[in-house]
């Protein structure tokens, strides 16, 4: 059998498989509608199904067989890899995805980390499917289980212009990359399809956590029925706040002995979030839940399953050119009644993020601007103020004076306790060997000297000190790390803390330090931008003296020779 015959046979097999799936779904549709007490038009069971290990749905006829220039298809997908890719495999994955994107005229953006791949893509209906099948052919074990979420018939104006793939350390900015990452194979939460998730929201002794950022929750969230689940909002400015919120005693009290539900836009954040909670409860026997679940495919798939909205209220914030998603069969009048968010300037009810406006309020604990997106309505006066006086923009969290909990969980210590990192052994998530100094809070790795990486080149010793002081950590000396050959600064430094207590408080920040630095924007002069620096313990080697005898602290990093 030649290649053409094999391709034809594979195409026929996929077509027959889709027919079998449709027959099964027709039976399930009637059963779920009856169980939930809904008319058949209020639920679309087929939309709740994952495409993992199944043929992708064929393009609908109205998009011209997938070749029309009027429409494009949006594809959302993520896939975690455990054990993580090695450095060589990670580079190969980056190259392969870029090569396939070029081959199939894919546009959009993605993040590729050692722990996996996360993408939002656009292309014609046929090309996007060819790209997905090419990924499956390249690495069947990894991408056959991937749930490729497809939205056909999208107006072509929503198509991305180019394709960008970022090389990153972590798919979601939880500051749980590398050895800190919880194991999905052992601790990931259980997936519920949208109809079962809907039913679970009706149960008492249940809490439901929105693991998105607060500004996303402001324009839309689940509203469980009376007598059912209790909704909890972690009030996150960024995803790095979540481990600290989950580690807070008051949060644990709210979750103890409850069934915990989580949700996010497409599911990727819930994968890590549910695994984190399960790891914590596994490591702390006194803190137990009745189970941790997430909605398969996230809000995106729930709203397609319940086109009239189900228990969803408002709009789903999106990170592509659509900006937001609403239940397809919900009227504009009903959507307007759902609006609880408002313009940050005039307080008029409004639920659209436009113009990339951000909160300018300083956070007392860090001395840095909040910098989360804020809503500015379309009134001329509000638009003028936002443009000319951006310092007046303030998000709801800052208006209420909300402060994020300070203490992050000892993720590495928990993994050691649970046998996910053996002493001198291998970390199950990264596949790398970790010595006794790998634990961020163990006495063996505690040191007054800290390594700080990913610093902006415009950093100064004073700015670095102020950032640490915002977390009640005092720095004794700053030592810039330079290239051995050029003697140029490349964004890293050693900070010797004033005491071991200061060092411990710094490491309890979860491995991240927020900095505010200047940058130039073409034609607009200097602006302020927030940056997340990395912090890790840097124990002295045997016999090493710190600071070195020749050390002399300078305010500015060296520029090299």
Automatic annotation (TrEMBL):
InterPro entries: Nucleotide-bd_a/b_plait_sf, RBD_domain_sf, Rhodanese-like_dom, Rhodanese-like_dom_sf, Rhodanese_C, RRM_dom, TrhO, TRHO_N. Signal peptide: none annotated. It holds the Pfam family UPF0176_N. Residues 448-535 form the RRM domain. Residues 202-311 form the Rhodanese domain. It comes from Skeletonema marinoi. The keyword Nucleus does not apply. Keywords: RNA-binding. This is Rhodanese-related sulfurtransferase. One of its GO terms (molecular function) is RNA binding.
């Amino acid at each position: 059998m030649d290649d053409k015959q094999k391709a034809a046979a594979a195409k026929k097999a996929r077509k027959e498989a889709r027919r079998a799936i449709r027959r099964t779904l027709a039976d399930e549709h009637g059963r779920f509608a009856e169980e939930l007490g809904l008319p058949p038009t209020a639920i679309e069971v087929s939309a709740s199904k994952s495409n993992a290990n199944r043929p992708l749905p064929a393009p609908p006829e109205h998009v011209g067989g997938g070749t029309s220039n009027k429409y494009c298809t949006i594809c959302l997908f993520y896939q975690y890899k455990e054990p993580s890719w090695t450095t060589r495999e990670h580079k190969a994955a980056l190259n392969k995805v870029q090569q396939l994107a070029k081959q199939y005229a894919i546009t959009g953006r993605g993040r590729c980390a050692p722990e996996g791949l996360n993408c939002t893509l656009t292309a014609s209906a046929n090309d996007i499917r060819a790209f997905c099948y090419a990924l499956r052919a390249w690495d069947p074990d990894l991408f056959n289980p991937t749930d490729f979420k497809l939205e056909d018939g999208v107006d072509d104006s929503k198509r991305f212009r180019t394709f960008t793939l970022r090389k990153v350390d972590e798919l979601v900015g939880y500051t749980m990359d590398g050895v800190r990452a919880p194991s999905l194979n052992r601790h990931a939460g259980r997936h519920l399809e949208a109809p079962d998730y809907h039913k679970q929201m009706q149960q008492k002794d249940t809490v439901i956590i929105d693991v998105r950022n607060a500004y996303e929750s402001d324009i839309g969230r689940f509203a469980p029925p009376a007598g059912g689940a209790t909704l909890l909002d972690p009030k996150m400015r960024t995803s790095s706040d979540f481990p600290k919120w989950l580690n807070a005693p008051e949060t644990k009290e709210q979750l103890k002995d409850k069934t915990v539900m989580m949700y996010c836009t497409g599911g990727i954040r819930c994968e890590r979030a549910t695994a984190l909670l399960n790891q914590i409860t596994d490591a702390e026997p006194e803190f137990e839940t009745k189970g941790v679940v997430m909605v398969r495919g996230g809000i995106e798939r729930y709203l397609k399953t319940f086109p009239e909205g189900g228990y969803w209220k408002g709009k789903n914030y999106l990170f592509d050119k659509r900006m937001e998603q609403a239940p397809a069969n919900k009227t504009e009048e009903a959507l307007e009644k759902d609006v609880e968010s408002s313009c940050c300037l005039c307080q008029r009810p409004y639920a659209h993020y436009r113009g990339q406006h951000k909160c300018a309020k300083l956070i007392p604990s860090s001395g840095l601007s909040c910098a989360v997106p804020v809503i500015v309505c379309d009134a001329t006066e509000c638009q003028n103020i936002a443009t000319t006086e951006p310092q007046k923009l303030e998000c709801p969290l800052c208006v209420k004076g909300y402060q994020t909990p300070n203490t992050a969980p000892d993720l590495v210590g928990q993994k050691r306790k649970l046998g996910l990192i053996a002493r001198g052994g291998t970390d199950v998530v990264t596949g790398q060997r970790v010595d006794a100094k790998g634990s961020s809070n163990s006495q063996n790795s505690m040191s007054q000297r800290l390594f700080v990486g990913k610093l902006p080149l415009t950093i100064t010793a004073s700015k670095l000190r102020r950032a640490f002081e915002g977390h009640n950590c005092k720095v004794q000396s700053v030592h810039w790390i330079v290239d051995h050959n050029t003697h140029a600064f490349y964004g890293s430094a050693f900070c010797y803390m004033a005491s071991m207590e200061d060092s411990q408080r710094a490491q309890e920040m979860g491995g991240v330090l927020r900095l505010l630095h200047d940058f130039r924007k073409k034609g607009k002069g200097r602006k302020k931008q927030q940056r997340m620096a990395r912090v890790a313990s840097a124990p002295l080697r045997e016999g090493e003296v710190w600071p070195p005898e020749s050390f002399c602290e300078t305010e500015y990093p060296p520029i090299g020779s």
